[in-house]
Amino acid sequence: MGSAAVHGANAELRGGAFPPVERAILRDGSVVHVRPIEPGDKPLLRAAFDRLGAESRYRRFLHPVKQLSERELAYFTEVDHYDHEAVLTVGPHGTEPVGVARYIRLADPKAAEVAIAVVDDWHGRGVGTLLLHKLVERARRAGIRRFRATCLADNDEVIDLLRRLGRARLDHPDPGVVELTIELPARPLPIDELRAALRAAAAGEVEVQPPRTEEQ
Ligand SMILES: CC(C)(COP(=O)(O)OP(=O)(O)OC[C@H]1O[C@@H](n2cnc3c(N)ncnc32)[C@H](O)[C@@H]1OP(=O)(O)O)[C@@H](O)C(=O)NCCC(=O)NCCS
Questions:
Q1: 116 CB near ligand 1 (under 6 Å)
Q2: CATH number of the domain residue 44 falls in
Q3: Which amino acid residue places its CA nearest to atom 17 of ligand 1?
Q4: Best exposed site among 31, 83, 146, 172 by fewest CB in 10 Å?
Q5: What is the predicted pLDDT for the residue at 53?
Q6: Of the candidates 209, 216, 207, which has an alpha carbon nearest to the alpha carbon of residue 26?
Q7: Can you give the residue range of the structural domain that contains 66?
Q8: Is 213 in the pocket of ligand 1 (CB under 6 A)?
């Protein structure tokens, strides 16, 4: 898993219709919680956006964005968890926004556009890897087999991150932009990530336990 391993994975249902929350320990020891986004997360999402630096915002949206409108906040948080899913990472107290990854199904029902952003202070700790891992699990359950992502051609961080998910094709639709098409692995934990996680575990950096899902 490269940077993060789902640890303890004490997936706990918050009762009734509430989505599962999973606890993860990043490679630097920080604890985060991962869960699907909810309509009540608008303030958290706004706070996450405010903590993205200008460069990160540009890389996420491919154009300069100063703030999210109410309409965008509604669109990004009021998702149906099937055609549109977003997975949120928050700090240990549930109030600090850390990152979000989402997919939106395309006209081809087996394909979805994927996007991800991690607040700048949390870059390089494994949050992006963790979020994409959880998103792939949910996408597979929703019948999605391919992710497409459009990103700046020099965005090596996200291109590397996405290419770890599965077999990837790289197209260049416009100068300075790449479009990635990634075939999602059938297994929830891609073997490359597993190897990396095991290497990290052997080096004593992380503990690796199989993630539990709400089906268990
Ligand atoms: C791309 C992004 C989501 C990565 O998130 P992250 O939490 O930093 O990712 P991870 O910590 O899981 O890092 C995964 C890999 O990315 C690369 N990476 C991450 N941060 C890096 C940095 N600051 N410098 C160099 N490489 C970096 C590394 O190859 C890392 O591999 P490693 O695990 O072997 O170290 C984050 O940089 C971001 O939010 N960027 C702005 C928004 C954006 O570009 N979105 C993409 C549009 S789809």
A1: yes
A2: 3.40.630.30
A3: 157
A4: 172
A5: 93
A6: 207
A7: 4-202
A8: no
Return the pLDDT at 158.
Answer: 95
Q: Ligand 1 centroid to 75 CA: how many Å?
A: 25
Instruction: Identify the pLDDT of residue 51.
Output: 94
CB 147 within 8 A of CB 184: yes
Residue 195: both structure tokens together: 């190897």
Residue 212 lies inside a defined structural domain of this protein: no
What is the pTM assigned to this prediction? Answer: 0.82
Angle at 181 between CA 170 and CA 162, to 5 degrees: 85
Q: 132: part of which helix (H) or strand (E)? A: helix 127-141
Cβ of residue 59 lying under 6 Å from some atom of ligand 1? yes
Q: What is the pLDDT of residue 11?
A: 36
Regions of the chain short of the pLDDT cut 50:
1-18, 191, 194-195, 198, 201-216
- What is the Å distance from ligand 1's center to 38 Cα? 25
| 124 C-alpha to ligand 1 centroid (Å) | 6
Residues 172, 178: Cα–Cα separation, whole Å:
5
Say if residues 51 and 120 touch (Cβ distance below 8 Å). yes
The per-residue pLDDT for range 86-121, each reduced to its tens digit, is 999 999 888 899 999 999 999 999 999 999 999 999
